[in-house]
Amino acid sequence: MVKQGHYAKASRKKVVRQFKQHHAAHEDQAIDDRKVKDYLLVRYHLTQSKHQRVVIQKTMQQFFGQWLDFATTNDEAPAWDVAALTERTLQLTNWQLPWQYYAVLDQQFATWQAFLVKEAPAVPLTTRLRVTTTLTPAAWQQLLTQQLAINGLLGSLGGDAQKLPQLTTAQVEQLQTSLQTDDQVNWAQVAALCGPIKIDMAAFDQGMQGLLRRLAKLTAADFGKD
Questions:
Q1: Which positions of the chain have pLDDT values less than 50?
Q2: Is-contact 121 129, C-beta < 8 A?
Q3: Which of 10, 101, 159, 225 lies at a C-alpha separation of 20 to 30 Å from 92?
Q4: Which long-range contacts (CB under 8 A, 24 or more apart) does 12-19 make?
Q5: What is the rounded distance in angstroms from the CA atom of residue 137 to the CA atom of residue 196?
Q6: Tens digit of pLDDT for each residue in 122-157?
Q7: Cα–Cα distance between 16 and 8 in angstroms, integer?
Q8: What CA–CA distance (Å, rounded) separates 25 from 111?
Q9: Which of 97, 108, 106 minimizes the C-alpha distance to 214?
């Protein structure tokens, strides 16, 4: 008797094979603009998932899905400003997600951005997408640590977004500096700052709650230097 695990594995391979065959057969045919998000999420999963642990897969799918929500609701010319869209996506979650979520993003960002630069313009649309204003490693770290500093400060204010205007540039920049060591994010410092912030699990669906539980098992040591 064929074991269920073997059958499931064979079924997944069949689905992947069918997708690749369909993609090859129709690569020159334009797809509906409304399918761009699903198209890129599937492409990302197919090209990256075998290199990623489950917690990383789910985190990046969550981030990329939200990123694409912003990108695909842009009514302007089909040009995706990576820096602006990434900043908006980080701001969407603020202190509501644990620091480990951001640590996974940091670990995967360069690979994800390279995927985006290669794959977005290749999406078969009537008018092809353009990717602009990509983030250098330094620019990404600046953006990330700024958001982490804001998260920490908002967390100390009870997570009240209405108090965001009370935060000064000097406060954010000073805290940013403390979260970096030798041009790297110091995740032990980030954990100390953001770890005590209470995450409202009830605000999320069951799938997201499962991801949050997986993330909670990660420690700063999981994000140390290679």
A1: 1-8, 22, 25-26, 226
A2: yes
A3: 225
A4: 16/46, 19/46
A5: 28
A6: 999 988 999 999 999 999 999 999 999 999 998 887
A7: 12
A8: 27
A9: 97
